[in-house]
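We modelled the chain as a single entity of 228 amino acids. Its sequence is:
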Amino acid sequence: MSPTRILMADDHAIFRQGLRKLFDEHQEFSIVGEASNGAEAMAAVNDLTPDVLLLDLQLGDMTGLDVLRRIGTGVKFKTILLGADIQRADELNAILLGASGIVRKYAASETLFKSIRAVIAGEIWIKREVIDDLIQMMPGRDSSATNPLVHFGLTAREMEIVQAVVHGLGNKEISEKLGISPFTVKHYMTRIFDKLLVSNRVELALFAVRQGLAKNARQVQLHVVPKA
């Protein structure tokens, strides 16, 4: 299996050097490039095609949130936001802007490794409290809709995939569970996103809870970060 391609974006050279040394000791990861500011990061994701972008919250020329906003959703790589002091508002905005995970800079190295593996598997690496707050931010269910399936135009197969996403399954796991190809899963996901007007997996899972397509918030398994 090819190593996970990682791009680092941080304005502190010492921090980047430390990460590079850390990843060089693990063959499952490969550092394909570094960026010291937001402009370099946005150029590098196009030139280097990483699997994961490790993005500092505070860059020299802009914030990590600015980078996420300019990159937009629908990109092929995953983004993990790094920061020493990340406020709840920043966490919420990062996920809504398309980040797949949030890791504190003071976290143990194994936590960072686990977060990368999780996002590559299609999960979202965030705290339970952030999930709960995001659910409250989603639009409420239309009380006139007696049958959410009919209301949103989902097929039975699409509903199965929605439930699988809510339970934290990645595309490969969904394909194995339903006996269909990963390509077919991606096709279904695109159709579901279009029908529900969501742009990523976390929005889909939270929308499903808020609209009654999943029973409750505790059903969401987007990989909840264990409490310290």
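As a brief sanity check on the tokenised model: Residues 40 and 111 are 26 Å apart (CA to CA). Residues 134-219 form a domain with the Arc Repressor Mutant, subunit A fold (CATH 1.10.10.10).
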